[in-house]
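We read letters as residues; the fold follows as tokens. Both lines appear below.
***
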Amino acid sequence: MNKLLEPLVDAELAELDDFLLDRLGDEDDENDSDPGIFSISGLDGFLTALVSAPTLVTPEHWMPVVWGDYEPEWESESAFEQIIGLIMRHMNTIAATLDEAPHEFEPLFLEREEDGEFFMVVDDWCEGYVRAVALTNAKWRAGGTEIERLLNPIRAFTSVTDWYAHEQASDTELDQLSDAITPSARAIYAFWLQRRLPKTATDKSPWDNARKK
């Protein structure tokens, strides 16, 4: 298998998760700086929206959003290549899954333990997703009411709606919104896939080349 198509193993996901958080250092959480994407769940949501978008967004446009105001200080070229390689592999895996086996796609949600019980936390993933949507928001709006309907469950768990799912929704509605995130993400990918213009030789997504053996 092409190395760029190999799904990340648990240890690699943990490595990437640690890196995203550790680059923030001990900065004050209450300042006005943008932390960017700081968890593997947020990155998973961000990359899912990128590969599902109505148009290609190149790495030079989306990578700064990942770092926010805390672009890493790379110790070496190999350290840079290691992290970027993990990000691109995960992006390629998401794209390949949504394209070839969409029923198998599952977001990387977080879990929280409380009194011995585990609860799914979807907020980071949804925040990452809407940050990617914002990069080409005008093109997303061209999807009209159908895209708005599909985005609603995702946006409900973000600051875009002032955390509607947590602040205003009933318990029943909260569960319904949470349950709708995964099928909505699958449907959004299919929606834009059907409407994209055929790619030319000079208009290929970054994961197209990775699929070549």
